[in-house]
Design brief:
- By secondary structure, this protein is of the alpha+beta class.
- The protein has 2 domains: 80 residues; 96 residues, Alpha-Beta Plaits.
- The chain is 54% helix and 21% strand.
- Strands 1, 2, 3, 4 and 5 form a 5-stranded antiparallel β-sheet that branches.
- It starts with a helix and ends with a strand.
C-alpha cells in the first residue's frame, strides 16, 4: 500500500511548484526518486571510471597468467626430458660427423671419378664420356655434378647404377635418360652423378 501511495504522490506532483533552490521542500516520494537516480548515476560513473579499467587490467593479467603457465609447462617438460635431449644431440653429432666424412674433399674428387670409371668397367659398360661440370655452391656445401654417358645392356646399366649408389662416398644420381643404340650393347644411358663437398668455413 505504501508503494501505491508513493506512486500517487509522484503522479500528483506539479512541476511548476518545484523549487530547485529548496529541494528540501519537495515531496518525500520525489526526493527518494531523485536520490535513487543520483545513486545510480554515481555508481555508473564509478564503474566506468574505476571498475572498467580494473576489468581490463584483470583480463590482461589473466592472459599473462595463461601464457606463463603454458611456458612453465613447456619448460618443465623440456627439463624432464633434458637427459634424452642431450643423448639425442650426441647421437646426431656422431651421425653428422660420419656423414661429413663421406663427403669428398678437393683432393678426393679425382679418386671419386676413378671409382665411377672402375665401376662402369667392372659392370662391362662402354664409357663414352665422364665430364666434371662446374661446382654449385650452397650455404653449407658445394655440389659437384658429373655427367656420365655409358653404353651397355639393360641389366649391366642397372648393376652400374646400384654400384655407384653403394660407393663409400655420398653420390646421388639424377636426370637419367636411356635410348637405344645400334650394336650388341643395345642402350645408351646419360646420367648426372652428384657428390658433395663440405665447406670448412661453414
Amino acid at each position: 500500500m505504501a508503494l501505491q501511495d508513493t506512486l500517487d504522490q509522484l503522479r500528483n506532483i506539479d512541476t511548476a511548484d518545484l523549487d530547485l533552490n529548496n529541494i528540501g521542500s519537495w515531496p518525500s516520494a520525489l526526493k527518494g526518486l531523485v536520490m535513487i537516480i543520483v545513486m545510480v548515476a554515481i555508481l555508473g560513473v564509478g564503474y566506468s571510471l574505476y571498475l572498467s579499467d580494473k576489468r581490463t587490467e584483470l583480463g590482461r593479467a589473466e592472459g599473462k597468467e595463461k601464457t606463463l603457465r603454458d611456458e612453465y609447462s613447456s619448460k618443465a617438460e623440456q627439463a624432464a626430458n633434458l637427459d634424452a635431449y642431450l643423448q639425442q644431440k650426441a647421437q646426431m653429432q656422431e651421425t653428422f660427423g660420419a656423414l661429413l666424412r663421406q663427403l669428398p674433399s678437393d683432393t678426393e674428387v679425382p679418386g671419386l671419378l676413378e671409382d665411377i670409371t672402375r665401376t662402369a668397367i667392372d659392370n662391362e659398360l662402354t664409357i663414352e664420356s665422364i665430364t666434371l661440370k662446374p661446382e654449385v655452391r650452397t650455404e653449407f656445401y658445394v655440389e659437384l655434378p658429373i655427367d656420365v654417358v655409358v653404353v651397355g645392356s639393360y641389366h649391366k646399366i642397372g648393376s652400374f647404377v646400384s654400384s655407384v649408389a653403394n660407393l663409400p662416398r655420398i653420390v646421388t644420381l639424377h636426370d637419367f635418360t636411356i635410348e637405344p643404340v645400334t650394336g650388341p650393347d643395345g642402350l645408351r644411358m646419360t646420367i648426372v652423378a652428384k657428390t658433395y663437398r663440405y665447406l670448412e668455413d661453414a
